[in-house]
Every structure is written in structure tokens, then in C-alpha cells.
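Mods, move this if it's the wrong board.
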Amino acid sequence: SIVKSELLGLTDTYSRVWEAYRTYTEILGLADSVSKGATLHPLTETLGLLDSVVKSPSITRDELLGLKDSVVKETSVTRAEILGLLDTLAKGVTLHPLTETLGLLDAVTKSASIIKVESLGLEDRVSKHPSKALTEVLGLLDSISYTPNPTILAKLIRKYLQLVDIGGGEQ
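Not the wrong board. C-alpha cells:
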């Protein structure tokens, strides 16, 4: 007989890989500020730009998943022992007592087999390497200023006086 089976194996492997590279990073920072004042200046927006280069060592840890396919051939011998029980009850019309027969059957079977196995291996790697990062920082600053509007203030006073006239404003 030919038996085909497929196995899934997981392999965890540790290895070190050293690499040298440079990383260029650009960071954009925004800062908003609101100021209140009694002046009559229009809305002002200030834009500040800061350009700087920063060098610092860093450690990057990467986890890679690799698939490894391998074929394995092997020879095996399988021995099986089969135990069969035969239980027989017989009843008769005669005056003989009840008869019970118990038979044991022992058989040995030898067979040659071919097993084909396909294994799937997963490989896990950890690598460490030094790196230099150049950082460029861009900062934006927004300023908003406003003044009280006399028209809106007059409308609020008018509504308050209407409430007072109705009798709901002062109790």
C-alpha cells in the first residue's frame, strides 16, 4: 500500500545580519495659538520654519518570516497486532446448561508501504544593525487674534432689555 501524508513543521532560527544604511526623516510640526486683545488689528498668521540636522544612533529590530520547502525521504516498518474476540451464546431445548464459547483470534499482518512527506518550515530571524538618521524639522506657527464686536454686544444688550421688559430678566 502507498500512504501519502503532508506534515507542517515550524522551525525557529536565530541569525544576526549587520547592515549599514542612512534614514532621512522629515517631521512636520504645527503649533496654533489664540490671543485676545482690545486692538483693532486684522487677523495675523505667522509662519516659522526651522531646519535642523540631527544625528543619533538607533537600533532597529526587524522580524522576518521566511518560508522553507524541503523534501524528506525515509523508510519505515509498521507492525500491527490485531486482537479479535469471538463470543458465542447457545441455547438448547435439552436440559444441558447454558454454553458460552470465547475465541481469541491473533493475526500478524506485514505490508510494505511508501510514505511521501512534504514539510513546510517557517523561519524566524532577528537582525541588529547600527543606523544614522538625519532629521529635518519643519515648524508652523499660527496666530489668531480678535477684538470684541460692538454690533454683537449691542444685540445682546437689546435682548436683555427685552427680557427685563417682559419681566423674565430680574426676579
